[in-house]
Amino acid sequence: xELTGAQxxxxxxxxxxxxxxxxxxxxxxxxxxxxxxxxxIRHVLVRHxxxxxxxxxxxxxxxxxxxxxxxxxxxxxxxxxxxxCTAHMDSVPVxxxxxxxPRSVIGTDAFQEADVWGVTMxxxxxxxxxxxxxxxxxxxxxxxxxxxxxxxxxVLVDIPRDVQNETIPYEVPEGVSLRGYKPVTxxxxxxxxxxxxxxxxxxxxxxxxxGGVIGAGAHRELVALAERCQLPVTTTLMAxxxxxxxxxxxxxxxxxxxxxxxxxxxxxxxxxxxVGARFDDRVTGKPDEFARQARIIHVxxxxxxxxxxxxxxxxxxxxxxxxxxxxxEVVEPxxxxxxxxxxxxxxxxxxxxxxxxxxxIRPQAVVEAVYRATGGNAIVATGVGQHQMWAAQYYRFREPxxxxxxxxxxxxxxGLPAAMGAWFARPDRTVVLxxxxxxxxxxxxxxxxxxxxxxxxxxxxxxxxxxxxxxQWQQLFYQRRYSAVNLAASPDFARVAGAFGVSGRRVxxxxxxxxxxxxxxxxxxxxxxxxxxxxxxxxxxxxxAGAPLTRQIETxx
Length: 557
What we know:
The protein is an alpha/beta fold. It folds into three domains: 2-169, Rossmann fold; 189-349, Rossmann fold, CATH 3.40.50; 363-543, Rossmann fold (3-Layer(aba) Sandwich), CATH 3.40.50. The protein has 23 helices and 19 strands. Strands 3-2-4-5-7-6 form a six-stranded parallel beta sheet, sandwiched between helices. Helix 3 (49-63) crosses helix 18, helix 9 packs across helix 14 and helix 11 (219-229) runs parallel beside helix 14 (320-330). The N and C termini lie far apart (72 Å).
């Protein structure tokens, strides 16, 4: 059939099962927007292109499908960069389609021209500048395959406007064959056998799971391996929910703001079974002093990650699910051991804790109240900062794809658009945003999108009138020389919400926290609750940046 390039793009999206796109139109992408009108694909008009990328990201994290965003050339495309980098760092499958100036004026500094192919090369898994309209069906099919296969990630397709307008014979690509890109998914049998033998011999083994477990849909296999071998489990920030947060073997999150139990386990374990984790600096602390007593089994789909930060004694390049399934076929059951009892003792003696107050709202108490009010069944998105860590510590996630946060890049403003995307992916679930006053102000314009599309997201702001995490570092490491962190001039967020047509309340009394949450969750539409919390409350435990895990600060008291 004969189609314009723009129609070919839309037809390709439909063949990939896309039914939702987030974006903002502009001159260089108008042909695609025109083709969308009769396509049956729903378009969500956001208020900033960064939000389009974050919403596509949130959709992908909550659903496991590829999220799609659309922007025009120049500033439209460059506004996607932060969102694409966020998805790239956290291995989230997103396809971004951008318009570009016509081929004849590329390189002339034409109006709204930017080298988006060059700009996004470091922050995407792959990208394209399509100069031949006949290549569009193939390129779009490749883009989705690359985004979702192997280690997932974002792919950008930049399309000049005249390419969108040309008429081509649309031919459905038969498949994808990319020379040099052949992801290894099945583990090597000899390495799997070595790993099983190491687990059998270990006296102090533990499981360390990363976001790759969720990406591979391997959470059931993770639980099965832990229970069969009685392995204590820690999951990274990106993997919260991959292992039930209320399971007896769960030690909590590790690393900079991780549990005392998980940090001590790393320090004293003689075997670490790492699955879908990349040994991020926020987990390891000083790499040279990380887990010095332990042999390490590292299962990861990305061979470049194996041995990158810490040496892997038994490397297994494989999809997390395939790797765990292979291990389950050969490992022998292990009884509970003295090691398990020691771990349980650390958990009992060193839980996450804070000092309750009858006069000030403690942010940790708000998160605990949110957990109780939602029954632990909500999809929770966050921004980045102290509130993010409190959410990770005090909301016990039991299912995968229920905690959406920017881990690798640490992108403030991620929360609201990600929550929007999550609701479109899972409208059957309560979607909650736990945000900070700093993060929320970076993308609060998306309340207009929330209202326009009737997205019933419940926004709970932990408002300490500061850039809280930066303030904490300045308090602890810069002798309280506070510099550019005070946000006292921020607006009343409840009143701002009202201006957008969203119900809002400010909460200042600890006694009013739970009633306010019950009201918010009972409301049929979106709600903003602005909780005024203690200004100098800090996140503990804490490992100072670059320090070994043995220097963990358990409390500020």
